[in-house]
Amino acid sequence: MKTLPASEPHLSEAEAEEVFGWILDGETSDEEIARFLLAITERSETAEEIAGAARALRARYIPVAGPENAIDVCGTGGDGHHTLNVSTAVGLVVAACGIPVARHGNRAISSLAGVADTLEVLGLDMVAAGRTAEKTLAEIGICFLFAPNHHPAMGRIQPIRKKLGRRTIFNLMGPLANPVGIKRQLIGIARPAYVSIYGDATARLGTKRTFIVSGDEGLDELSLAGGNEMADVTGHDFEMKRVDAGIAGIGHAPLEAIRGGDSRHNAQALTALLAGESGPYRDTVRFNSAAALLVAGATESWESGAAMAGEAIDSGKAAKLLADWIEMAK
Asked: pTM of this prediction?
């Protein structure tokens, strides 16, 4: 069995790729993995370590065919705010706008309801959704790539993460290892001060365009509550920006206004949203959808992107897409 290094000094990108290869290939003990994950989390992971770890995970996933213009929208999780499922709703809305969305995610690790948990309550058979992922992505423009189906190496890691009950570098690796190999993403992270580091990691891997965002209160989405840090990553470079809801013509609202609950509660809220219910949840989804549509190249302004998102909801397109998806994934 391999002995994992101490948390200091920091690993180079190549060293991180090798070390996380050991972890994913089962060449070290569960106790060693838990110790190592906690140690590097406590001192904060570097851009080199995130990029190297993501390369190790990418090298071991089971790929899925998808259109060249497919995007993903996700949060890294672990923000502790237990909000409604924003990225789940954004994925449906953006796909209803005609942009293929390859959602890649998992069950909740430290939150009350992850994307998979909520979608199951809504009637999506997660096993069937995985089996039909290429078909639904090709035919209706959306799929859910349930991470365990495409990252078999993560099988032994998941119980360790669950036991730790907190975010680790695996929260940061997952969004950078989508099995479709997409090059356009909206990724929310839970640490505003960390956006530049994650932007650097994403740039090291290369992307056509990716937004890394974090609300000032530590939300892993674009927040209505105040300002947001954002890294706009193009190719192997990134630029830091500050944005708030006003840029999309949307008003502010406190974080408590989108507080969620368990998967059943969140599923009910998502159903109401898709039926046209107004309020902060809808506005949060419109704001984040505008960002995703900018990343996808479907719009050139935040305001027009928010308007496109609103139309996708009010026309019933997003609700119909969900119904079609549930029917196809059987």
From this structure: 0.94
